[in-house]
Design a protein that fits this description.
Blueprint (H helix, E strand, L loop, with lengths): L2 H14 L12 H8 L3 H13 L3 E4 L3 E4 L4 H4 L1 H8 L5 H25 L2 H16 L4 H17 L4 H24 L3 H17 L3 H32 L8
Antiparallel strand pairs: 1-2
Helix pairs in contact: 1-3, 2-3, 5-9, 6-8, 6-9, 6-10, 6-11, 7-8, 7-10, 8-9, 10-11
Length: 243
């Protein structure tokens, strides 16, 4: 562990133990460095790193504060990291696999916790999907909103933040699917209707199974399409591909 990493860990420990609770202001840099037995340079680097991670917020002219430490804030950077993976077919398949592992379980949990108002919100997105079945981008935007509303019904902010982090990349996959597969809209609607019906019945096992079928079908299609695209690329002269 580098000296900077050790400095970061020391500040994290102050936050974990409650010595620096959410919303509290850090001591001035010289005082913080002395308190932790660090050089001012190391303390500064540690603060910078924790600010990038959204653990700390540097307010110019006011000082540095511990953030709210909400999962939605701390995991916000995940989406940006995922975006850097665009164009990496292996990474995209890995992300779809993560979605398959998490989302069905989250959907099953939502079935046991979803309120009538939350169920109505899910239905609103399903209705919007039906109306937008011929508009791929709108269809997929409401598709993403449908799943967000479902996971939000679990009340688990960390789970919601994790799945939101990968949704930007997988949303592109769903749009892509709609553009190249004219039957995708009908299948997508049928799968979402099955999820909604299971949620309406508050049936956790059925909700999880319906979500697993939906995500697995998308993942299966994506793997097959990527294999076909790679085969076509290899068949081109010099193994190059356009686009």
């Amino acid at each position: 562990m580098s000296l900077t990493d050790k400095a970061i860990e020391q500040i994290r420990e102050l936050i974990r133990t409650g010595a620096l609770p959410p919303g509290s202001k850090l001591p001035p840099e010289p005082d913080l460095a002395a308190q932790l037995g660090l050089s001012r340079n190391l303390a500064r680097e540690a603060v910078k790193a924790l600010a990038v991670a959204r653990v700390l917020e540097v307010r110019r002219g006011d000082g540095t504060y511990v953030t709210s430490l909400q999962p939605s804030l701390l995991l916000e950077g995940l989406g940006g990291a995922v975006e850097l993976l665009q164009g990496d077919s292996v990474a995209l398949q890995d992300l779809m696999e993560v979605r398959r592992l998490l989302e069905p379980v989250a959907t099953g949990l939502a079935a046991t916790r979803i309120s009538d108002d939350q169920l109505a919100e899910v239905k609103g997105h399903l209705d919007a999907m039906r109306e937008a079945r011929d508009d791929v981008e709108r269809l997929n935007a409401h598709d993403a909103a449908f799943h967000r509303a479902v996971v939000s019904a679990t009340g688990n902010e960390s789970l919601l933040a994790l799945l939101e982090g990968i949704s930007g990349r997988t949303l592109r996959a769903r749009i892509w699917r709609g553009l190249v597969d004219i039957q995708a809209a009908g299948r997508t609607l049928a799968e979402h209707e099955a999820i909604f019906a299971a949620l309406s019945a508050r049936d956790a096992a059925l909700s999880q199974a319906a979500a697993l079928l939906h995500v697995s079908n998308t993942e299966k299609w994506l793997r097959e399409h990527l294999r076909s695209a790679e085969a076509e690329a290899e068949a081109l002269p010099f193994g190059t591909a356009s686009g």
